[in-house]
Predict the structure.
Amino acid sequence: MKFSEYWNQVHKKRSDVMPICDDWLEDFEDVLASCKTKVLDLGCGTGNDTLFLTRNGFEVIACDYSQVALDNINKHFEGVETKLVDIAQVLPFEDNSFDLVIADLSLHYFDTETTKSVMREIKRILTPNGSLLARVNSTEDVNFGAGQGEFIEENYYFVNGYNKRFFTLEDAKMFFSIIGEAQVQNGDMYRYGKPKQLIVIKATKK
């Protein structure tokens, strides 16, 4: 099954699920306050971060690999621009377009070289001193597949129907420093009924 088909099936099951605000972005008030452009929600999924951003007065471009996900965004939000985007390819935006990019649980699906390429693309579209705020799977995320499935490369597995990368703090620092100054820390969330271990990243273009 193609990756896009897999995610279209996932989001068809979520078509009636209302987005729920997550509070993780509240920890970055300084970054949010300094944003003067539209915000790019890169891998918007069900729209949890789009909901937070629109409620706080930001104009959002919501992007996803799944057209069904974008259809759901259009159903739940008015005035939000949507765009079908493959994060693993060249991003369809001009250089220096965004003060802020959000990538929540959308950057942990790629092999090492693709992940590095994704970081370079995000750096390209960020304005000078612009920031990426992201969350990715942690190697401690045993409830959601860490260390399980078919081994592809270090901390990268085919598990539960698709490829998943799990990051150590050191991995996250290495990859996200491609963008610029990277701050990484452990985090967790409870959206899926049991604890999910994450790494939270702020990477500022330098």
Remarks:
- The longest strand covers residues 126-137.
